[in-house]
Amino acid sequence: MYANQQRIEQHIEQLSQFTATPGVGVTRLTYSKEDLGARNYIKDRMLEYGLTVSEDGFGNIFGKLEGTIPDAPSVIVGSHFDSVQNGGAYDGTAGVVIGLEIAALFQENNCKPAYPLEIIALVEEEGSRFGGGLMGSRGMMGLLTNESFQTLADKDGILAVDAMRQIGLDTEKEKLRDPKTIKTFLELHIEQGPILEENAIPIGVVEAIVGLTQLEVTIQGRAGHAGTTPMSHRSDALVAAAEVIATFPQLAIEEGNGTVITTGQLHVFPNGSNVIPEKVVFSVDIRSGKEQHMQNAVRKVEELIASKNTTRILTSIEQLLYISPKEMDEHIRSILKETSDKLNIPYCSINSGAGHDAMVFSDFTACGMIFIPSKGGLSHCPEEWSNASHLVNGANILFQTALQLTEGNES
Questions:
Q1: Domain ends where: 323, 340, 371?
Q2: Pair 21, 135 in one domain
């Protein structure tokens, strides 16, 4: 009853082919044709492994193996299958693949669960197309209202609902999931950092996930000719934005306690080489392990941006996402550690500096999460890679954990 490494590698390889940037990493944006290709592959495998397949009104995919207890809550295993632009083949996808492997192991070993087993593949965790992130999990748990979803659009103005329809998804399906129908959520993810690899530890049992907020900042100035407008008469939105962004590293260092602040997106209008920038829109990603430091950093960033308001420059801030730091379930953590010991797989406790769908589900159900090493600590890039033997370790741990939880023998 051990995971099949060849099958896991095949799934990773096959899913990596569904990319808009062949040869330059994986680019699989939500509701794209690449999403559709990966979606169909995942659903086909779910059916092959004896699961009943369904999708909700956000396009999240569910494969369910019914349990013997009528109307019992499900043990859910999975992750997301979207990617960042020019990302890697493992972020999110590895967790979905391990979910598929667990379903295959249940089938091969004729496991008859008491509580249902569900494998899930979630949409738009990265927020690469529609912003905010964690959309699939937030949506199904009611944290993204249907009204907000109906108006959600990408940078090209394409509505999410229209993009769904373009790949044949039904926007009228039920969107909400009753928390009472979920017993546990388990997620495997690559670490996306260097700790496990540097210490030669194959598994990290996640204790907590940092809180994160994402802001969208707009700085409005006035366009003008680059050659004829004196420096003293300019309302340069980009200069104001640059002054703000350049202050972030020191602000984060002063707050301390692992607080980080990042600007990863910057849009300049009209974006002409001989035109003074009239408007700049940029992202601010703030993360910290403690709620107090999260709030302090947000307040300081807001004050810094507001300080740039003058008669010539106007600023505004929209908070796209705010999620508090989340602790994983203590009992599930214990089971994951005990299972690792039984399988003679070394592990350590670890905190996550990245956001994951588990942090959304943790407000509604017991959650457990494990990390496997990332080569060079790299992620969100084409070089992202994890050893298949580590994926096998993770699959074996989650399979045994899922067996225990679906039989109700966890106490």
A1: 323
A2: yes
